[in-house]
Design brief:
Length: 125
């Protein structure tokens, strides 16, 4: 079932497009030395946005450096990414068929707020 939902997500839920956007942003950020930690987080979100069904993430943990990077991320990009995922989730939630996709956009929106110190993992069956 996860495979079918992931394939439908990639085509109809916007998964392929959002993954490409995160990959491009990550590559652009990795061009500079200062942007490498932020680019790595973009790659993490890209992996989750391509195949989100069957995956979950833990809340942010870590030290002061992760907190500072999360604050920088939130102020520079996190709020806008969060709002864009919510804007994609609302029309999907209107239809019954789109509700599972809306939940995945909300999951990505929450990750976009503070990605540093978050571990993406497979859900237990």
């Amino acid at each position: 079932m996860r495979l079918i939902l992931n394939l439908l997500w990639a085509v109809f839920g916007g998964g392929f497009i959002t993954a490409i956007e995160y990959l491009l942003a990550g590559m652009l950020l990795c061009v500079t030395i200062v942007g490498i930690p932020f680019g790595v987080q973009c790659f993490k979100i890209a992996g989750l946005s391509l195949f989100p069904f069957g995956k979950d993430f833990s809340g942010p943990r870590g030290g002061a450096v992760g907190f500072v990077f999360n604050v920088i991320w939130l102020l520079v990009a996190g709020i806008w990414i969060f709002l864009s995922h919510l804007a994609l989730a609302v029309p999907l939630a209107v239809s019954i068929i789109g509700i599972p996709f809306a939940f995945q956009h909300v999951k990505l929106a929450m990750l976009a707020l503070a990605p540093f110190g978050v571990d993406v993992r497979e859900k237990a069956a």
